[in-house]
Amino acid sequence: MKLTAFAAAAAAFLMFGPSQAMAGRDLDQIRARGQLLCGVQGPSNPGFGFPNAQGQWQGFNVEVCRSVAITIFGDPNRVQFVPVTTQSRFPALSSGEVDILSNNSTWTLTRDSNVNRFNFPAIVFYDGQSMMVPRRLNVTSARQLDGATVCVQPGTTTELNLADYFRQHNMRFTPVVVADLDELRRAYDSGRCDVFTNDFAALAAQRTLLSRPADHVILPERISKEPLGPVVRQGDEELTNIVAWTVFALIEAEELGITAANVEQIAGSSTNPIVRRFLGVEGNMGESINAARADYARQMIRTFGNYGEIYERWLGERTPLGLERGQNRTWLNGGLLYAPPAR
Amino acid sequence: MSSTALAPPKPLIPLPGGTTMRGVLWQAGLAIVVVLVGWSLYNNMLANMAARGLQFGFGFLNRSAGIPIGEHLIPYTPADTYQRALTVGLLNTLRVALLGVVLATILGILLGLARLSANPLLRGLTGGYIEVIRNTPLVLQLVFWHAIVLQLPSVRQALNPLPGLYLSQRGLKTPALMADTALFWAAVAVVVALLAWWLLLRRERARQEATGDRRPTWAPGLALLFGLPILAGYVIGAPTVEWPVLAGFNFRGGLTLSPEFFALLLGLVIYTSAFIAEIVRAGIQSVQRGQWEAARALGLAPGRIMRLVILPQALRVIIPPLTSQYLNLTKNSSLAVVIGYPDLVSVANTSINQTGQAVEVIAIFMAVYLIISLVTSLLMNTYNRAVALKER
C-alpha cells in the first residue's frame, strides 16, 4: 500500500513538472483543440453578446469571434463561448482559460504593455464613457453630479475614468461597485445609485433591461475615449495577425460595398484586382496570414455580412439599442473605421 | 482464517533496523516527497509565468491604484497605493467578521435555548428556522437580503425613526461624534467608570465569600457610567456631534452603514446563527439530567441553573465546533463580492485585473485569511483550555 502511495506521489510530481514554451503555440493549441475559446461578457450584454432562448450565444461581439473561427477553421461554429466578468476577464486570458476576449475591452497602454502582456489587434467599436441618470433627477450635465452615488463595474477603465473625472472637476462621489452586471443594474434600477456609468453603447444596452427604460436619460458628456476590440495574449504573432485581418476584412468589405447578398455574384463577375484578391479569387492572401482557406473573407461575408450589416443587425437603429453609426462609420462616410490595404 | 494469518507481515521493501528506524525512514521519505512536490509546483508556476512573459514581484504594491472604494475605515482616495487599497479591503473584512461573530453568537445562543424550550410553538418555529437557513446556500441568502435592503424607501423619502437617524436605500445614517479633545475625555470617563464598576463588583464578591451577603452593584455602576461622562462634558465641554443633512443627491455628514454592509452582516449572522444554535443545543443536551435535578433540588431558579450549572459544563462541548463556525463566518465574508461590499477579495480581484499580478495578490489574500484564522483558533483554543474539565 505504502509503495503505491509513493508511486502516486512520484507520478504527481512528474505530471506537475515544468512545462515547455513554443513559438506560436496559442494558434497551435487552438488548432489542436479544434475550437476557439472566446471570452464574452457574462451573463448578458444585449446586442453585443447574449444567449438566445436555445442557449446559443449571439450578438456583435459573438459574430466577431465566429468570424475569427472562420479564418482559423473555415467554420463559424468551432467556438466555445466562455462568459467572463469585467474582473475575471484578464486573468482568464493570461492564464489560458480563453484564447481571445471579445467583450468590449478598452485598448489602453497598461493593458498593451510589459505590465499586462496583451495585444489589441484591431478596434471594432469606438465608444466613450457616459453617465445615465433617472429623468426625475432633472440633471442635464455630468458636472451637476457632485455628491452622487455611482454604480460602476469593477476592474474596468470605466472605474478608473470615473475617479479621474470627479477628481479633475473637484467633485465627490460614492462608488457602488458590483462585479455582476445584472446585480449592478438591479441596484441602479432600485435607486441604490443616482448614476449608472459605462461606455455609451453598453449603457444603451443596459437601459433596455431596466424596468422603465424611458425614465432614464444618458447625459451628453463623453468623459473618455474607449476604443473597444478583441484581445489576445502577447507572444503569438500569428494569432494576432489572424484576428487583426479578420476585423479588417469585415471593414474592407463595407468599404468595397460587398454584402452577404452580393458577395457570390461579385466574386464571380468582378474584374477589379483588389476585389478579386480580397475574395480569394486570385492571389494567396489567406495563406499569408495562415487562414484555413484562401477565400476566408468571402466565406465570412457570406455568413455574417460586412461590418455595417453586423452592426445594423445587433446594435443599429432598428434594434432595441437603437445606436447611430456615429464614429463607427467607415472613413469613406466620415467615420473612424479604416482597414489597411489587403494586398 | 487460519492461525498463520496472525504472523507479522513481511515488509514490502527490506529496510534496516527495527520498527522505530523504519518509521523514521518512512517519515523522512514522506517529507522529501512533500518538499519535491512543493518545489516542482513552484517551478512550474515560474516556468508558466515566464512563458507568458509575466514577472513575479511585489513592486506593484507601491503604485497608485486609481480604484475608487466606497467604504473605508481609514482615509483613502483613488490616488493612494495598492497597498493602502488592500489594507482598506482587509479592514472592511475584519469589520464585518468581528461584528458578525459577536452577533451570530448572541443570536445562536438565544435560538439554541429556544430550540429546547418547553413551549412547542417556540420550539417548532425555531426548528423550522434552523432547517430552512441551514439547508439553503449562503450566496442565495445574501442576494435575497441585498434585494430586501434595496426595497427600503429612496433617499429623499428616508425613514426618520429618531432625530438624526435616517434609514433608506443608501443605508443607515447616524450622527457622528467628531474626534476632538472633548470626545477623548468623554472616552476616558467611560473607561474610568467601567474600571470603578469592576472594582466595586470585586469588592462585593469578596464580601459575599466572607459574609455570605451581597449587595447589588448595578445602581452605583450605572450612575458612574452615565455620571462621569456627563461630568466630563460639563467641565471640558460636550463632544461635537455631526448631524447628517440631506444635501443634493445624498446625506452629508454623520456615519453611514451601507446597505451592502448591512445585507452582508445580516446574511452572515442569520446563516451562522442557525449552525451555532444547533451546537448550543447539542452542548446543553450533553449535560446529564442529574445536573438539572440536583440544581433544582438546591432550590436554584431556572435562569441561575442555566447560567451557573448547565452552561459552564455545556461550554466544553460547545467551544471547539463554535471555533469552526467563527472561521467559516470570516471566510464566508468573501462572498461580499456578489453584492458589492468592498471586502479584501473584492479589492484584490480588481487589483489583479489592473496589475496582472494574479499570483502575488492571491498569495497575499491567502496569507491574510490564514493569519486571521490562526489567530481566531489561537484565541478560541486558549478560551477552551480555560473552560475545559480540570483534572487535579
From TrEMBL, chain A:
Highest taxon above the source species: Bacteria
Species per Swiss-Prot/TrEMBL record: Roseococcus suduntuyensis
KW Acetylation (keyword) present: no
Keyword Cytoplasm carried by entry: no
Domain named Solute-binding protein family 3/N-terminal: residues: 35-266
This protein's name: General L-amino acid transport system substrate-binding protein
InterPro entries: Bact_solute-bind_prot3 (IPR051455), Solute-binding_3/MltF_N (IPR001638)
Keyword set, alphabetical order: Signal, Transport
Family: Belongs to the bacterial solute-binding protein 3 family.
Gene Ontology BP annotations: amino acid transport
SMART domains for this protein: PBPb (SM00062)
Residues in the signal sequence: 1-23
Automatic annotation (TrEMBL), chain B:
Name of the protein in question: General L-amino acid transport system permease protein
Localization, UniProt: Cell inner membrane; Cell membrane
All residue ranges annotated as the ABC transmembrane type-1 domain in the record: 90-380
GO cellular component: ATP-binding cassette (ABC) transporter complex
Family annotation (Gene3D superfamilies): MetI-like (1.10.3720.10)
Chief place where the protein resides: membrane
CDD domains in UniProt: TM_PBP2
Membrane topology value: Multi-pass membrane protein
Keyword terms, alphabetized: Amino-acid transport, Cell membrane, Membrane, Transmembrane, Transmembrane helix, Transport
Molecular function in Gene Ontology: transmembrane transporter activity
